[in-house]
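Journal club prep, shared notes

We agreed each person brings one worked example of a sequence with its structure written out as tokens. Mine is Sigma-70 family RNA polymerase sigma factor. I'm keeping it raw so we can talk through how to read the token line rather than staring at a rendered picture. Sequence first:
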Amino acid sequence: MDKKLTFEEIFQQNERRIHYQIHKMNIRDPHHDFFQEGLVALWNAFETYQPDKGPMATYFNYIIRNRLIDRMRHDTRQHEIHQQTVHEQHTQYTDGNYHRGTEGARPIAANHQLQLADSNLWKNLQSQLTDKQWKWVYYAIIQEMSYKTIAEQENTTVDAVKNWGRQVKKKLKDPHFRHMLSLDDKDI
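Then the structure, token by token:
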């Protein structure tokens, strides 16, 4: 008599097989997500097994292992996407084009302490900066353009534009440089 096994019987006989594959691949599974994935794989393998193709145990191992690998790849991709999103949000928040305080963020150009109409100040500042540093001041401060837009316009990277800004900020913090530009009484 050829008795067909139920899935419950297959599960009882092969539950350790799932744990073995998880352990073999050094997967940490505190929430049993991978075990559940292995269980679904065991079910699929049970449903699709063809006895004339080879031993059942080999087939189960193959299906479970590959399903766990697929899950790890999926989780890794999701983690990378999340990390990229966090990085982009952090970059956008810290790109230097805004003053941040308890009242929220406001564009640098909205800082009323810096007189945008003082053309002598801007000409004097421009004469003391490199071309790239001046481009950062002009585009990021005066025109209020984003770093990404500046980078596209200047055919460079966002990191390069940020570096221009860091150089300018460093100069503006230097007391000697501020005195030379008559900025001692201005808060930039």
